[in-house]
Amino acid sequence: MSDTPASGDRRSGTPLAKKLGVRAGQGQRLRLLHAGPDWTVPGLPGDVDLAAGGPGGADLTVAFYRSYADLAAEGEGLARDLADHAMLWIAWPRKAAGHVSDLTENALRDLFLPLGLVDVKVAALGEDWSGLKFVRRRENRRKSDAK
């Protein structure tokens, strides 16, 4: 499987940065966890702080997993470290592109919903990756974690 950078959804024409929730002028901190060395987000605004890492201190994280076991081992920490205002995208190999994985949307929900997160969007994150976006449920937000 390649880690080809994604330009966006061919059907909608939506650039990947916009699809992920990146907005110019916000000074967002975008973190890529377990991304291949060549996977990028084309067209990022200049004020976006892009680095490798998890959701701690990030506004937006895209975390890549190829197996449920790997994700399950890190899932609780991902949910714990996610700020109330932040977004967490979990990316897994796209079956529509011919890739094999034991990760599914329902498996992700089964893992993250009990941890206080809720999924709000699904999207293709390039040719090889599907993504499900999670945020913390309003009733589970910590009062001291305002941005």
Specify the CATH architecture: 3-Layer(aba) Sandwich
Count the strands? 6
Average of the residue pLDDT scores: 89
In terms of DSSP E residues, the strand content is 25-35%
Query: What is the percent of helical residues?
Result: 10-25%
- Look up the CATH topology: Rossmann fold
- The helix count comes to 3
Assembly of the depicted chains? single chain
Approximate shape: globular
Query: Which series of helices and strands comes N to C?
Result: HEEEHEHEE
Low-confidence stretches: none
Strand order in the sheet with the most strands: 2-1-3-4-6-5
Overall number of domains: 1
Query: What characterizes the major β-sheet?
Result: 6 strands, mixed
Whole-Å distance between the termini? 37 Å
CATH class: Alpha Beta
CATH H-level superfamily: Vaccinia Virus protein VP39
> Which secondary-structure class do the elements indicate?
alpha/beta
| Radius of gyration over C-alpha positions, nearest whole angstrom | 14 Å
Outline the structure in words.
This protein has 147 residues and is an alpha/beta fold. The chain has one domain (27-137): Vaccinia Virus protein VP39 (Rossmann fold). Helix content is 18%, strand content 25%. The chain has three helices and six strands, in the order αβββαβαββ. The protein has helices spanning 16-20, 68-81, 105-112; strands at 29-33, 49-52, 60-64, 87-93, 117-124, 129-136. The protein has a six-stranded mixed β-sheet with strand order 2-1-3-4-6-5, with helices on one face. A hairpin with a 4-residue loop joins strand 5 (117-124) and strand 6. Helix 2 crosses helix 3. It is globular and about 40 Å long. It starts with 15 loop residues before the first helix and ends in an 11-residue tail after the last strand.
